[in-house]
Design goal:
Blueprint: E1 5-8, H1 10-27, E2 33-39, H2 43-50, E3 57-66, E4 76-80, E5 90-98, H3 102-112, E6 118-126, E7 139-143, E8 149-150, E9 166-168
Parallel strand pairs: 2-3, 2-5, 5-6, 6-7
Antiparallel strand pairs: 1-9, 3-4, 8-9
The structure holds inosinic acid and magnesium ion (MG).
């Protein structure tokens, strides 16, 4: 694993995630949450986020893959589904990064057919320059420039997820 130019340090990640957790705790006071993490990219983020939320909650995972390895077609396949019903539940959908928005848009449509009480999106990162569809992001960690980033759960070809900070990946 080579060293990468850092975009967001561990310290900034930690502080911002804790802040998001406090906002969520305040907004959902008195309620129980089902946190739905989108695999695989959000696994590090969600692990930190849930430990900053002081509410009763359950964690669920949904696995998805974009066809043909492209994230821009919006044709998404569910590779691993939720293990429980979300009917009548308050869902917090947690994603690592929103790029074109097509993946999130598909997931929001899909989850809404299951009749949750509410669904809010929490995304660590957004690349506004690349948005193709508007996705309402209730909780957003950082807006980032149009660069390919890895680390803190995000990958390139499956690698770099274990990098503790967010780095900019440029082909060598
Ligand atoms: P969208 O459907 O275009 O919004 O794609 C979102 C998905 O593309 C994310 O869940 C990531 O898996 C992937 N992705 C987009 N940008 C990056 C990046 O900079 N680094 C790593 N993965 C990315
Ligand atoms: Mg992803």
């Amino acid at each position: 694993m080579r060293e990468l130019e850092p975009l967001i340090t561990e310290e900034r990640l930690r502080a911002r995630v804790a802040q998001l957790g406090r906002e969520i705790t305040r907004d959902f006071a008195g309620q129980t949450l089902v946190v739905v993490a989108v695999l695989k990219g959000s696994f590090v983020f969600v692990a930190d986020l849930v430990r900053s939320i002081a509410l009763p909650l359950e964690v669920e995972f949904i696995g998805i893959s974009s066809y043909a390895g492209t994230s821009s077609t919006g044709v998404v396949q569910i590779t691993q589904d939720l293990s429980r019903s979300i009917e009548g539940e308050h869902v917090l959908l947690v994603e690592d990064i929103i790029d074109s928005g097509l993946t999130m848009s598909y997931l929001l449509d899909n989850l809404s057919t299951r009749h949750p009480a509410s669904v809010q999106v929490c995304a660590l990162l957004e690349k506004p320059a690349r948005a193709k569809v508007r996705v309402p992001i209730a909780y957003k960690g950082f807006e980032i420039p149009d660069e390919f980033v890895v680390g803190y759960g995000l990958d390139v070809d499956g690698k770099y997820r274990n990098l503790p900070y967010l780095g900019i990946f440029r082909a060598p």
